[in-house]
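pinned: reference chain
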Amino acid sequence: MRFPLLLTIFHPLAALASSPHTPSETPSTLTTRDGIRLTYTQTGPRSGPPILFITGWRQAAIEWRQQSAYFSAAGFRVTTFDLRGHGESEEPSFGYRISRFAADLDDLLTHLNLHKVAIVGHSMGCSVAWAWWDQYPASHKRVAKFVFADQPAAMVKNPAWSDEYAAEIAAVFAPLELFGLANDISAQLEPLVRGMFTPTVSETDLQWVLEQNRKMSDENSGALLVDHAFADWRDVLPRITVQSLVLAGEVSVFPPRGIEWVAQQIPGAESYTFTEAEKGSHFVFWENPERFNEVVEAFLRK
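pinned: its structure tokens
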């Protein structure tokens, strides 16, 4: 697995601190059907078009702060939430599988009675959205658009696949490599997360993100990583029937070729690859929020 790096010229935390549009609404909670408390926050005008952000593996909803500020100021009704075991949500000893996270997402959509919502998923957040689409066809009417940011359809290479095909779909892990990572996640977390950013990401930013990551236990995050990485969504993508935008990064840990393959499988999907000059890392939404937000908003307003 490669960890490409580039220069950072923007300091997100400092910029946000001076923003007049920093989200400030008090977080709320809901209880899932299996009794787990999830924390969510809504900002922006109540009458605005709804947009829901889903984080990646081990990330906290607060990491969407630059999107919450931007889109709520632009008139959208923004919802972010902490996945089970993440951020400020309850961390039970069970349920660390994508199918359970999809059920939690359906509970949230039902609890908030969201309709015509645009769902933006990053990394594992895309997998949660794909699982939800697969498992809850009766709820499809709630969604108007999808944005899928930097997630392959399959992360682990099946030994029966050719190297060429694995590269085409960005299956970047060998099975034993993935288990090795999950079983040593305490030691591997910082280099793994650091590699998802550009080389000069400030230590302040990086350590803050790692602080959010460490709100989840290594044991639970390791179990989730295995379930997430071994999932295969190739048969779900052609069945997505709403307008979709697929985002890749030229210097992401996931080669953009594989993310663009995802776009090719979704009927009528649009795609955009953030260049190296645009700081197109796995965390482009953090490192270049202005460009990320601009691309997403242009798609949503079509």
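why pinned: The radius of gyration is 18 Å. The chain has one domain: 12-300.
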